[in-house]
Amino acid sequence: MRDFVLERPRSISQALEILKNHGEKAILKSGGTDVIVWLHKSLKEPDYLVDLTAIDQLRGIVMNDDNVEIRALVTLNQVIEDNAMNRYFPALVQACKAHSDPLIRNRATVVGNICAAVPSGDMIAPLMCYDAKVEIVGSRGIRKVPVSDFITGPKKTSLRQEEIVTGIRIAIPFVETSGCYLKAIRREALDIAQAAVCCTLHKGDSREFRIAFCAVSPRPLRAVEAEKLLNSSSVIDDSIIENAARLAADAVNPITDVRASREYRIDMIGELTKRAISICLRGPAEEGGPR
Amino acid sequence: MKDKYVTLTINGRKTTLVVEDRTTLLTALREYGVTSLKRGCEEGECGACTVIMNGLPQKSCLILVREAEGAEILTVEGLIKKGRLHPVQQAFIDEGAIQCGYCTPGMVMTTYALLSKNPSPEEEEIREALSGNICRCTGYLSIIRAVKKSADILSGKAKGGELREDD
Amino acid sequence: MKTIKTKTGIGKWLPRKYDLQKAEGTLQFADDLRFGPELLHASVVRSSVAHGEIIDIDYSEALKMPGVLKVIVGEDFPYHFGLYLKDRTPMAIGRTRYMGEPVALVVAETEEDAKEAVKKVKVTYKELEPVFDPVKAATTNSVLVHPDLHKYDHVDFITPQPNTNIANWFRIRKGDTEAAFKNAAHVFEETITCPQIAHGFIETFCSICKQDPGSGEITIWTSAQSAFTVRDIIAKGINYPLHKIRVIAPPVGGGFGGKAGMTVEALCLAAAMDEDLKGRPVKLFIPREEVLLSSWVRQGFVARIELAVDEDGLMQGIRNTFWFDTGISAEYGANPVRSARYTSMGAYNIPNVWADCYAVYTNKPFGGAYRGFGLPELMSALEVVVDIVAHKLKIDPVEFRKKNLLMKGQTTCTGMPMHDHALDKIIDKVAKKIDVLKEEPPIRKGWKRGKGIALAIKAPAIPADASSSAIVKLNGDGTVEVLAATMDMGQGTYSAFAQIVSEELGIPYDWIKVYYPDTQSHPYDWQTAASRSCWSMGMAVKRAASELREKLLALFAEYWQTPVENISIEYGVVKCHKLGKSERIDERVQNGFKMPDGILKGGPIIGTGSFTPPDLLYPDPDTGQSPKSVTHFTLGAVGVDMEVDPATGRIIINKVCAGYDVGKAITPINIKGQIEGGTVQGLSACLMEGMTYDEHGKLLTPDFTDYKIATIKDAPGEIDAFWEETPEEISPYGNRGVGEHSMIAPAPATNNALFRATGMRIHSYPLSRERVYKALKAKEKGETDFWEWPYALDLAYERAKKEW
């Protein structure tokens, strides 16, 4: 690992100051479970590494009247153990459980996963379904960007130099809700997704399905056509589910690599979508699918 | 260049280490002399470097040592009290859950953390908790037996130091 | 009256030696040793092309980096090394043969300094056409990986074919195969393939080398299974006297054959022997992502098997061809090829055998020893083919195997008679324990469940002169130290040796210490390999302990003036019941007994023992026939109960039952451990493992991010491990090896179970989720067999297959 200067700001303003001074020579880290691996493999060789883990302002899951704020240092295990997260955002909790392993989840953060912006990031699809906004602070103030706009390509985000992500904000669904995250991997644990499907169902006055994917497109992707079909059907039977799954599979554009072929990924999207819809219809999270 | 200082508590002993910015917690602890942590992969895939940091089991290869400023670190060396093994260590011996021993310190620490939180885990919970610690020798079933026995010793249901015999 | 009494002899369940230190975390592996600030660190510059001439290595920028002392290239250390065939140099010289091959070594004050400087070394290549497919490499020889093959030294039991890519061609010609096939009622032909796979030990490679500048004496601390073999290979490679090389082998964090022979020691030595550096210890730690590029892996293979079966369902002939993908070096890999051939008949009585086994060079990292040593490869193929034949003949797979079983007195493919064994009984037990013939509903909704069985067989493929020796020393307080240069890398041999010593000496297990190998103190042992240690070294330890006992009892006999037969050692105390004497062992065993005549006799009591297989004869090179080609076979059977989710290809193993005829269980805790561990390692290989390359030969699975091995969640719900004890004739206690055997049959048993579950035969390992899914899709289109080769684009294989 090439040496660098580690900056450990104590406040957001200190962090911004450091970023301003170092420009593109600096990269950010929160939990570090991606960044330290990149450094170890020399995939990144920054002069400055700005570690946000000493900034107390970035800790905590904050419940507001109509939204919840997952701040930048919130780890996946903190989400998993949080009652409100389990109640309102079951799909996000499942995605956290499907991510890596229980040890890494003590360090890996939800925000870090979004900022790494790898197409296989497990947090992306649930945050797409929950329509999360990424909250960014920079020298020019605060801006809020939907996750779909935040990630602009593999390992690319719309985060500017001299900006940091302070958290993610999600509106609380005040209706009955169910959701799940199903992930295809190469063994029973600790793997990067070959493909994954997130599905949420809000059962308010009008039933609303949302479906998003993982590892099958360069940018975050919602299954718009499949959602349309589901949300416009008064009764959801097996044939509707089959059709929705087919629409979902049609929507993705995965690559072939050592983890899986494009064809397998597409077929898994279809299969997992089918399962995810059924699970959501059955109600609270249930075991099913590869994970 | 080693020109940074980190003060942390390692197995109950407060100490200051001289480190580089890039030094991982794994490297720093090994240089300090805590060699129970192993360099199995240095990218979070094997768990041979598992420590308990501020009460949570973590992979020390994925942490920069300067992040551990002020932290309490517990490793397998720190489980031994007055020369006596911790029940988890004893149960691993009793159940034949150790072969080459390279993954053992990490396995023991993850087990210790699991049982601190969940004193009588189901088999499925054991498998989930240990899913980030790779063992190539044992085939894992003896490890599962050892975790169950650890729980039994800790709750007074079993005695350490007795081997399980087949037939 | 028995001479000794002990509660801790062979067959007892006891806590394993060194488990305490392992649980405490205090056991020091090679990477844990400390050498102070004098220690230098080396890091490897690796080839970025699979096959190319090295035009230039420019390391001027690297030398300017902080802490860098020296950059060493292949020409600086131009020695050839190898166990059976000297075909490898620690660094490429003039030509690089695989992507990732060492081309230079940077030596610096710190590991990070060395690693950073590696990035600054610029190497210019003229690229040459590579060859990756073993069948293409062997049949076309259009690209020669080793044009100098004819110049390499090799042992006389391997047969390299100059001007080809064939590093070893081993053949069996027994009986009249042609007639057997002509007269057969049924003839079958099948192919099976498997990629290279990796050991996946958690400890990577680590060596520290130091040369004393004045005397030239070399000390090597290394993560090696076989300290003496490291010493031999290095001495022969650099033409150096043995007594000037000391190899110290600290505990090894998993070996599985991957640390047998010499691995990275010579590369590290290139730095330690450098004129400018010598005197300072140099450490070479291989990080995980370079492990598969630094030493051998299990060879990939393409197997074609033909079986001739008569109208009674008896196998009359077998013709098989195995192309082993040995990568760029067969220095060790030449021998698994031989090992597999010794057992070309599997566990069956087949009178007519025609077998060809090739180790084929390709431009990939090299193949060599891995748990099972050719037999998981052979049996992954043969046991599937046998299952196919049973199915096609409509005979149940258990019955078909049993009626063709190779029983006592029948001859193996090399013409030697099979010894007594209990495989028939084991098959019955396995079949019963998982109810292999009974179809049961799947546990999981929508899944398909199946059960399968496969047999295991393996003999140690050791050279005929592979020997062991041991020293047992009695201390002045009755405790005992054992010097036996076997590496206990987790298999538990030190526990076995201590139990053997306890059995022979009547001294409690806890009083017995067995030390890790050091060629300076320990007597010679060939290798920790071939599941031979409890048998070969066990023999040496038993003999050494017996000699010690005889010496001790003779002294007490004179001391007490009573015949030696009246004296016994009981739980560490020497007794003569007739005279009512009972004395502890004390300083007298060091400084002598004052005999009744007043004269001191005795002095330090040491027992020594050695063992060389007494009757092995190398097979005839043209026919493979020999009256005793191997010492003995360990046989066993594995049953697998599994289910598959057809919609994803995911397989879950419900239960495995595995039984072996171990002859005699010396340390039951270890046998159980070896069976459970090897079973999961075999299942892991079967379900998810394989080294994958891109079309340029770049390894796409270099580390645990993409080379996946079983986690605790992948382990089966249950493993029912058991053993039978049919004693072996030439053996310390009738025991046979079992360490490797547990890895042989889980893969074919799982493959056979998958067929029972789905009706689909997959001919290519691994049975990854994606492959199983694809195969089941193909089944929907009416296919019954599925086959994929990693070089799908390389149609040469298809052509070559037709040309066979």
CATH-defined topology of the largest domain in chain A: Uridine Diphospho-n-acetylenolpyruvylglucosamine Reductase, domain 3
Mean pLDDT over the full residue set of chain B: 96
* H/E series of chain B: EEHEEEHHHH
- Give the overall shape of chain A: globular
First-residue to last-residue Cα separation of chain A:
34 Å
Any idea of the CATH class of the largest domain in chain B?
Alpha Beta
Strand elements of chain B, count: 5
Give the helix proportion of chain B (percent range). Answer: 25-40%
Relative strand content of chain A: 15-25%
Structural classification of chain A: alpha+beta
- C-alpha termini separation of chain B: 60 Å
What letter string, H or E per element, gives the SSE order of chain A? EHEHEEEHHHHHEEHEEEEEEHHH
Q: How many DSSP helices of chain B?
A: 5
Gross morphology of chain B is: elongated
Low-confidence stretches of chain B: none
Can you offer a commentary on this structure?
The complex is a heterotrimer of chains A (291), B (167) and C (804). Chain A has 291 residues and is an alpha+beta fold. Chain A has helices spanning 12-22, 35-40, 76-81, 83-88, 90-98, 110-116, 124-129, 147-150, 224-232, 238-251, 262-282; strands spanning 5-7, 26-29, 48-51, 61-63, 67-71, 133-138, 141-146, 151-153, 156-157, 163-171, 177-184, 195-203, 207-214. Chain A folds into 3 domains: 5-51, Uridine Diphospho-n-acetylenolpyruvylglucosamine Reductase, domain 2, CATH 3.30.43.10; 58-171, Uridine Diphospho-n-acetylenolpyruvylglucosamine Reductase, domain 3 (2-Layer Sandwich); 177-282, 2-Layer Sandwich (Enolase-like, domain 1), CATH 3.30.390.50. Chain A has a 5-stranded antiparallel sheet. The longest helix of chain A has 21 residues, at 262-282. The radius of gyration of chain A is 19 Å and the shape is globular. The model of chain A is unreliable at 285-291 (pLDDT under 50). Chain B has 167 residues and is an alpha+beta fold. Chain B has 2 domains: 4-79, Ubiquitin-like (UB roll) (Roll), CATH 3.10.20; 87-154, Orthogonal Bundle (DNA polymerase, domain 1), CATH 1.10.150.120. Chain B has 5 helices and 5 strands. Chain B has a 5-stranded mixed sheet, sandwiched between helices. In chain B, helix 2 (87-94) packs across helix 5 (141-154). The mean pLDDT of chain B is 96. With 804 residues, chain C is α/β, with parallel strands linked by helices. Chain C folds into 3 domains: 4-27 and 466-611, Aldehyde Oxidoreductase, domain 4 (2-Layer Sandwich); 36-128 and 218-238 and 260-286, Aldehyde Oxidoreductase, domain 3 (Alpha-Beta Complex); 297-462 and 618-803, Aldehyde oxidase/xanthine dehydrogenase, molybdopterin binding domain (Aldehyde Oxidoreductase, domain 4). In chain C, strands 4-6-2-13-10-11-12 form a 7-stranded mixed sheet, with helices on both faces. Chain C is globular. The relative contact order of chain C is 0.13. At the B-C interface, helix 2, helix 3, helix 4 and helix 5 of B face helix 1, helix 16 and strand 31 of C.
